[in-house]
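Q: What would this chain look like folded?
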Amino acid sequence: MIGGDYMPMPKEDQQYTYKDYLTWPEDEHWEIIDGVPYMQAAPMWEHQDISMELSRQFANYFLDKPCKVFASPFDLCLEETEDSKQVTQPDLVVVCDEKKLKGTGYFGVPTLVVEIISKSSVRMDRVIKFNKFREFGVKEYWIIEPIEKIIQVFTLQDNGKYEMEIYVEEDKKIDVDTFPGLQIDLTNVFPE
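A: My prediction, written as structure tokens:
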């Protein structure tokens, strides 16, 4: 609420920034890509279960290290200004520069991003965010399909393109390229 009035819902034909985003209702989850607002749906329980387990494993690894993992809701402004037209709420974000943490999230390019897809987020996660994260230089981007129990890991190469590896539940472990020594145990990631 600002000045006693509620902010009207964003319109698709306008360009918005992080400053605008801060005036929208807190109980709604929005993202802005290239100034265009997108509303997020509430996640399924499988989504939450995977997110919590990955958060735990990442957080345990980062104890006494300079990087940190954050889970949604957490604002990621890829541009380092309040006028950013790139505001996302990834399921998990690993950041390694604490100076860029402020307000509701992180202003800059994170090291690793994880998205757990749902039926309503497939295009956003696989196309729109994929291209935006690659454009801004996110070193590692994971897309997780909870029902199929598949993890696609995209690692940014020197040529600016992502190289992909696919993992399934039977693989048991993922060695995280961006963080040598970090190994994710898949036996606890996918719910039965």
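Residues 3 and 145 are 42 Å apart (CA to CA).
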